[in-house]
Structure formats: structure tokens, C-alpha cells
# Entry
Amino acid sequence: MVDISVSLGNINLPNPIIAASGTFGYGYEFSKYFNLNILGGISIKGTTLEPRFGNPTPRIAECYSGMINSVGMQNPGIKNVIGEQIPMLRKCFNNLILANIGGFSIGEFVACAKLVNECDDIGMLELNVSCPNLHADGENFGTSPEALKEVVKEVRKVLTKKPLYVKLTPNVTDIVKMAKICEEQGADGLSLINTLLGMRIDLATKKPIIANKMGGFSGKAIFPVALRAIYQVYQQVKIPIIGIGGVSSARDVIEMMLAGATAVQVGSQTLINPFAMKEIVANLPKVMAEYKINKIQDIIGGGH
Amino acid sequence: MDIQNCKILSNEKIAKNTYKMVLECNTKSITKPGQFINITLQDFYLRRPISVCDYDANSITIIYKILGQGTKSMASLTPDIILNCMIGLGNGFDITKSDKNPIIIGGGVGVPPLYRLAKELVKIGISPKVLLGFNIGEEVFLANEFSALGCEVLVATADGSIGHKGFVTELLDGIEYDYFFTCGPLAMLKAVCNMTISDGQISLEERMGCGFGACMGCSIMTHSGAKRICKEGPVFEKKELIW
Ligand SMILES: Cc1cc2nc3c(=O)[nH]c(=O)nc-3n(C[C@H](O)[C@H](O)[C@H](O)COP(=O)(O)OP(=O)(O)OC[C@H]3O[C@@H](n4cnc5c(N)ncnc54)[C@H](O)[C@@H]3O)c2cc1C
Ligand SMILES: Cc1cc2nc3c(=O)[nH]c(=O)nc-3n(C[C@H](O)[C@H](O)[C@H](O)COP(=O)(O)O)c2cc1C
Ligand code: FES
# Structure
């Protein structure tokens, strides 16, 4: 028997597979498709202090082996999420719940973090400083070293009871520099990566397909970019990395862990196949056996 | 919702740029007319949402128009090819809300889901009047099939080659009805909502990431809050919609 459990800092997961934020709602709606407890964790839809409808539609465009989204953090606000959504998820899910938190100001991030800190069902705060859909030009806290430092520092001050993972954007010249800033400001780990800023134009209308023109590019096509970011960051920081971006198979999971990821999130693949994560978890032992891996935790960073 | 590998039983042209495909599958997850399926096509990342036009226990009929690259590739598929489909998506039309004398208003590729709807209405003893709008005569489809159900059918074409020359909404003049069901291009749906005097149900479209409620890609704001077209929709009541 192979061992697929991993330790993310001091959190033990039955396996490294986590649902990526924004691609699995609040989870509970999908408990009728499969038993959610086969997942190591679920990162909930990005949540802000106040309810948000998000961006105008069209919010989705197709790409070669991927997609662009411009949802813009549609969510019912942190109070509803903690009061209603998380308890519903907890009823059908026993493993790690990651609260993905977004915001427009440091004050908003801090206010959300305070509420997350007091919610027993949340196992970790995933600070989303990397959503490309909140400002017209894709800019966010994660693209400015100064802003990133400030927000991580202030959130860390109030988040005393939970691990803090910062989700970084690949839309920067030097992601290692951003990762080091997070580590220095006391982050417990990193989620790498959020979507790449991208766009498509419709030949029939000769205008951008996405109402907001640009959006976040995700899916299989971005796997090499995510892998590269994880590999680079792993060499320079000590805190654990959750790998995200284009994962669609058990082989991808192993490849990402070899690059340095301790756990792996699956996003867009779930949208085109709701059973993708279940299939990946089921296939993981087979692929490990094929490559003579007994304990998955042992391969983390093995590619270096 | 369930996912199945469905065999193409037939795929033939029925009007200009318009094809009818029959897929072999188990249809127990379909509960209402107006639901849709989401089809994986080889070499395309996202699935293509297409309404269920009709079904029996072992097959689904869809009618689709060539719009872009994906539907173009669909048109070239031959029988026996297997397509992976998510089946039984969306809420569908609620026929229990209909009054005794409803009308059905369809435009272009919005017409297919209305066929099964008409069939279900006929089953409960209601014979809807059917108003269909197309751009040109060569694009007209399903008109005879609606007639065969016993419905009175009126057609409008923009070029006037079949039926009334002009918009389908112009056919509303002088027609008596107490409820409506509609599906078609957005501009038509808006006109229908403005011109109709009764309550009714409207089926909407949007570009979709998932089709089963996971991504929030297809949301609209309604009088009762944000709704997902793929999950709470695609059918909405007239009084819910904000134009
Ligand atoms: C609930 C629902 C039911 C539908 N039922 C039918 C039907 O019965 N018959 C029919 O012919 N068409 C129907 N459509 C529209 C159909 O989904 C699009 O025409 C089709 O996806 C276009 O794909 P393409 O690859 O040819 O176009 P492309 O433009 O190449 O597609 C690129 C991407 O945009 C999406 N897209 C493009 N146009 C639309 C659109 N109008 N609506 C939704 N997604 C779009 C595609 O799915 C794909 O992801 C329906 C759409 C929805 C949402
Ligand atoms: C429709 C959609 C919505 C998303 N929403 C969020 C979000 O709210 N918060 C967040 O941190 N990331 C969000 N993401 C990014 C994903 O969590 C993930 O980082 C990214 O899609 C790359 O992984 P993938 O290629 O496996 O999808 C979203 C992605 C998609 C496709
Ligand atoms: S298309 Fe994903 S929620 Fe509707």
C-alpha cells in the first residue's frame, strides 16, 4: 500500500488534493455527486467583506487548452459565508476548509481576517492578493512589493489562530521576490499560482469576448507556468507551497510535488469534469506504484 | 445531473446551417422541458451547452446551429462517434404555472427546447399557440412538428419568404393568450417581455464555464438576487428579470 497523506505545516491531510477557489462554489452543492471526504481540502469561493455581484457578463471565454474568467469575486459577503455557507459545507466535509479572502483595501482584508480567526470550521486563511478581476488593468496587492508587504503584515497581526497562506499572482517579473516578502512577514505558506492575465477577441464582433475585456487565464495550458513558479520559489523559501495551475491528472500532481508543492489544488479541470478530483485521488496510488513511489510526502521537491 | 458517453445515432442537416443530432443515452436525469446538456468536443476545452429538443428513455434529440468553430466541428460528426455529455442540467420550464391558453414564442436556435415543452403541455390537455421567428425562409425548422402536435403555428421571417414578413413579436397582435413561454435571441426576449400582457417564462443563454453551478460564470442579477443561468435558470419568470 502506498501512502498518499501529506502534512501541510502541522495540518495533516489524507491526500494532497484540494479544490481550488472559485471552481467548486462552497462545496456542499456537489456532495450529491461524490463523497467530499475523499478530498484533502476545499478552498471556498473568494470572499470579500461586503456581498458582491461581480463583473458584467460575458465572464467566460474559451482558449486552447484553457479558459479565461472574469467572475470578479461574486460572493454573498464574509458574514453570510461564515454564518451560512461554511456550516453547510462542514455538514458534509470533515477535512481542511480554506477561506479564500479577497479585498480592495488593507482594512477590508484585516476585517475579514478577524472574522476568519474566530471561525472554528475554517482551517486556514488563503489570502487572495492575486485576483486579476477586481481592477480594470488586472492590478492587485500581489503585483506591488510594498502593498503586498503591508497587507501580509497587517493580516498576520490579527490572524493569531490560523495558518496564513498567501496566494500569489504569476503576473509579476519576479515571483520569488514576492514569495520572500510573504515569508518575511510571517506567512505560514504560499498558494502558487492564481490565473494569468489574458484576453480573447471575437472575430465576428471584432471586440473582446469578456465584458471586462481581460480576465484570468487558467486550465491545462498554464501548467508549465505554474510548475516553473513553484520550482523557483521552492529553492528560495522554506514555508510550504500549495501548487495550483492546470492540474488535470494524477501525473500532474506528482510532477508539481517534485517541483516543490506539498499539496495541489485542482481548478478549471473540475469545471469541465466535475469528477476530476475524485478520479485524480483514485489514480494517485496507481501512478505512484508505476513510478515506485511509496510515500508521496517523500517526493516533495524531489525534482531539485 | 449525470455524465455519460453517448453514441451519435444520427446527425443531419435540417435547415440552413442547422443540424439535428440524436444521441443514445439514459435520460433519467432529465426532469423538465427546457433543460440542457453540455457536450465535450474533441480539441475544445469547454463543453458546449445545447438544449434538449426532445427525448425518450434511450435517446436525446438536439438541434443546433453552426455559430463558431465548435458547432462547425459538431456538424461534421458521423454516427457511432461517442460524445461525453453532462445531462439534465438547469431547472427547465414549469408547466404547472401555465394558464389554460398559453403561447410559445421561439426565435432561431431558441426554438428547440420549446418543442418538448409543447409536447408536455399537450400531454396535460393544453394546446399552446406557437409563434416562430427566423431570419430567412431556409432557416425555418420544427414548424411542421409543432403542427403535428396539434398546435396552431404562425411563422415570421425577416425576409418575408415564409409567413409574416417581420419580427415574431408582431404576430402577437390580435392573439389571445393568458401565459407565455419563450426562448430566443436576447433582443427578442426583451421585446416579448415588453409587449406581453401576461406572466410568462423566459429561457436565457450565457457563455458558461461549467454548466452545473460551480464557477459563477453565468450569473445574472434578478429581483430575487443573483442567479446562475445554468443552475437556477436557464428558465426564469418574467417578474424576476431586470431588463
Ligand atoms: C442553456 C443553453 C442552451 C442552448 N441551446 C442551444 C440549442 O438548442 N441550439 C443551439 O444551436 N444553440 C444553443 N445554445 C447556444 C450554443 O451553446 C452556442 O451556439 C455554442 O456554444 C457555440 O459554440 P461554438 O463553438 O460554435 O462557438 P464559439 O464562439 O467558437 O465558442 C466559443 C465559446 O463560447 C461559447 N459560446 C459562444 N456563443 C455562445 C452562446 N450564444 N451561448 C452560450 N455559449 C456560447 C461556446 O460554448 C464556447 O465555450 C445554447 C446555449 C445555452 C447557454
Ligand atoms: C471561474 C474561476 C473562478 C476563480 N475564482 C477565484 C477566486 O475567487 N479566488 C482565487 O483565489 N482564485 C480564483 N480562481 C483561480 C483558481 O483558484 C486557480 O488559482 C486558477 O484557476 C489556476 O488553476 P487551474 O488551472 O487548475 O484552474 C478562479 C478560477 C476560475 C477558473
Ligand atoms: S456556468 Fe458555471 S456557474 Fe453557470
The first helix of chain B runs from residue 69 to 75. The domain at 2-89 of chain B is CATH 2.40.30.10 (Elongation Factor Tu (Ef-tu); domain 3). The longest strand of chain B covers residues 2-15. The radius of gyration of chain B is 17 Å.
